[in-house]
Please model this.
Amino acid sequence: MSESVGGWSVGASAEHTFDMTEALIDQYAALSGDFNPIHMKKEAANASGFPRRVAHGWLSGAFLFRIVGMTLPGPGVLVQSMTLDWKQPLFPGDRVTAKVTVTKVSVAAQVLVLGLSGTTATGALAFSGTMTVQMSNELAKATVAAPAAVSEARTAAEVKPVVVPGARTITGSGPPVLVTGGARGIGRAIAEELARRGHPVALGYATGAAEAESAAAAIRAQGGRAVTFGFDLASDQSPRAALERLAAELGPIGGLVHAATPSLDRAAASESVLPSVERYLKVYVGGALSLLEVLLPSMKAAKHGRVVFLGTSALFGAPPPNMAAYVTGKSALLGLMKSLSVELGPSGITCNMVSPGLTVTDLTRDTSPRQQLAEAQRIPLRRLAQVQDTARVVASLLGEDGAFISGAHLPVTGGPV
Model:
């Protein structure tokens, strides 16, 4: 069986035929602001040796994006790079067939390399090129094979929503859990997984109120119970009042997942990184302690509690360069986890850390595709971590499966040892 990404393997293709018209040229000019006379006036085109107005090059390119965004690979795709060579100009009245073909697949990086082409009704090649795209986590989970060739000639109104296989409904029940950093990325995935397992969840955020509410609304739409919890862990304020309001709304908080993080600061340890170290310590260690100061009394009274800190694979082996402040902050959080697991164990409270490998989220958006591919090839399982990988491990620790696991530092890295 040939390798595939999102159900697409080498040789799969999709095409769309369109008519170049003066109206399309006018609309593209209005959108782009490119009113070059050669595009807008027949007289100017004639003066340059062309029989009619010349269509903007990227106007035809837009139809390639239509195929990529709606058909192959389809909704959820992220374009990484593109080249396009125009072989001949296009004019009003030309009928063009744009085509996209899969030429290379990287399962490890969830990447497709696509061949691009456009031919006129006479068979002349109008443009050609290549595009590299990456599948989002949701689309990469699809297991239904795509057809070898697709004729994409539907209108936007005819395009049906993509249904991703594997979605699960809310099952079971569990105590309420606060997930810091729950508005996006791994934190959001953890909140969603906990909700699927029956936990009421509070999605903590510092600045992303709209994202947090969107995530909570999505959980509620699936039958879960979710609220948002706005609090800046980098501030000097106590979270007591906010946590008391949260407990009144959800009930006593029985679990804490501390996934909040500042943005990444990249600087060598030999540089002045102390302000960055203090910022990480404030959110990681200070944030955890300020929350637990309020949450622990009810956990101790119930003789039950679950605490999980989100770490990083950089804590295993040699850390990456220019990330001293980040690694120092996470190392301190690891030390806190170990101490808490010893001190809280007699009260029936477990404390663990889960450390994922490179996971493509907003936090790592500046990691280049080349770096992502190199990292994937280094991993024995030959792919990067997905947010769901970490979410499922964390959710297990919050449930009965994690009842006798405490003081553990669990890697979610795909195999590096």
In short: Confidence is low (pLDDT under 50) at residues 138-170.
